[in-house]
Write a structure and sequence with these properties.
Elements: H1 24-35, H2 49-61, H3 72-78, H4 95-106, H5 120-132, H6 143-149, E1 173-175, E2 178-180, E3 183-186, E4 192-194, E5 199-207, E6 212-218, E7 223-233, E8 240-241, E9 246-250, E10 260-267, E11 270-272
Antiparallel strand pairs: 1-2, 3-10, 4-9, 5-6, 5-8, 6-7, 7-9, 7-10, 10-11
Helix pairs in contact: 1-4
Length: 279
C-alpha cells in the first residue's frame, strides 16, 4: 500500500548548489577555445579562471595585447560572429548559430547537438520557442526572437519537494555536445521515488526515446514534473497525488548507464532547472 513518505531536505554537504543559466556568448567562446586545444574545462557558459586563462593564451598566440578581454581584435582572431549580427535561418552555419543553439537550450528548447549548423532540429526548436514566447513561428531567428531569448529563463513557479534523497550528480545544462534538461540522482534500484508537488498523473508507463519507464505529473501553472528510468511505476493516469506520495521506484530503464532518477520539470513545455526550487 502506498503511503505518504516524509521528504527531508538534504544537508548542505550533499545538496548540489543551484547554478545560474550560462551566457550563450561565453559558451561559444569556451567551445571555440576548446576546439583550438586551449580550454579543457566544461562548456557551461560561466566565465571563470579557466576561460580567462584560455583567452589570454589565445591572445598571446595571436600577437595581441594579453588583457583577457574579448574585444573586436580578439573576436576576429577567434573568428567569433556575435549573435544578432544577422537573422538566422535554415542552412546558415557559424558561431552565432552555435550561440542561438545554446540560448534555446537554456530557455528549455534544446535543438539536439551543439554543432553551429542551422538544420532541421534547430529550426524546430526555434519554432517551439517562438510559439512559447507568443511570436510568429516562422523558424527564423530575427530581432524579436533574439530579444525574447535575452530575457531570463523561466523558473519553477512554486517550491518542490525532493523526489529522492541523494546528491545530484548531473545537473541541468550542457553535457558534452548536447544539453541535459533535468537533474540525475543516483540510488539503488528499487528505491522509492516520490511526487515533488501535488497534481494529477498525466503519463505512467514506457516512453520511447530513451526515457524508459516514466511518470509525468501535471501541476498548476502549466507545470509538469517527470520521473524517468524507473524500474517500476506505482501510479496510474488520472490519479491524484500529493507531495511525498510514492509514484515509482528507481531503475535503469531506457537510455541509462546505471540506476538513477532523471528528474525534469517543464513549464508550459519549456524545460526548467529544478534545483533552485527544490526544498
Amino acid at each position: 500500500m502506498r503511503g505518504i513518505l516524509a521528504v527531508a531536505a538534504l544537508s548542505l554537504l550533499l545538496a548540489a548548489p543551484a547554478r545560474a543559466a550560462g551566457d550563450p556568448a561565453v559558451a561559444v567562446l569556451q567551445a571555440t577555445l576548446q576546439a583550438r586545444g586551449l580550454y579543457a574545462a566544461a562548456v557551461d557558459g560561466l566565465r571563470g579562471p579557466a576561460t580567462n586563462a584560455a583567452v589570454r593564451t589565445a591572445q598571446r598566440r595571436a600577437g595581441l595585447a594579453v588583457d583577457g578581454i574579448v574585444g573586436p581584435r580578439t573576436r576576429r582572431a577567434l573568428r567569433l560572429r556575435p549573435l544578432g549580427s544577422r537573422p538566422l535561418r535554415a542552412g546558415l552555419v557559424g558561431t552565432d548559430v552555435l550561440a542561438l543553439q545554446f540560448a534555446l537550450a537554456w530557455h528549455g528548447f534544446p535543438s539536439g547537438t551543439f554543432d553551429g549548423g542551422f538544420g532541421a532540429h534547430t529550426g524546430a526548436a526555434v519554432r517551439r520557442f517562438q510559439s512559447f514566447a507568443g511570436l510568429a513561428a516562422d523558424g527564423i531567428a530575427g530581432s524579436a526572437t533574439l530579444a525574447a531569448l535575452r530575457a531570463a529563463p523561466l523558473r519553477v513557479p512554486f517550491s518542490l519537494a525532493r523526489p529522492l534523497q541523494g546528491p545530484v550528480t548531473d545537473r541541468f545544462g550542457p553535457r558534452g555536445s548536447r544539453f541535459h534538461t533535468g537533474i540525475d540522482i543516483p540510488a539503488p534500484s528499487g528505491t522509492g521515488v516520490v511526487a515533488a508537488a501535488p497534481g494529477r498523473v498525466a503519463y505512467a508507463g514506457w516512453l520511447p526515446g530513451g526515457w524508459g519507464l516514466l511518470v509525468a505529473v501535471a501541476h498548476r501553472n502549466g507545470t509538469r514534473t517527470l520521473y524517468a528510468h524507473l524500474s517500476r511505476v506505482e501510479v496510474h493516469v488520472g490519479e491524484r497525488v500529493q507531495a511525498g506520495w510514492q509514484v515509482g521506484r528507481v531503475g535503469a530503464t531506457g537510455d541509462a548507464t546505471g540506476p538513477h532518477l532523471h528528474f525534469e520539470v517543464r513549464v508550459r513545455g519549456a524545460a526548467v532547472d529544478p534545483l533552485p526550487s527544490l526544498a
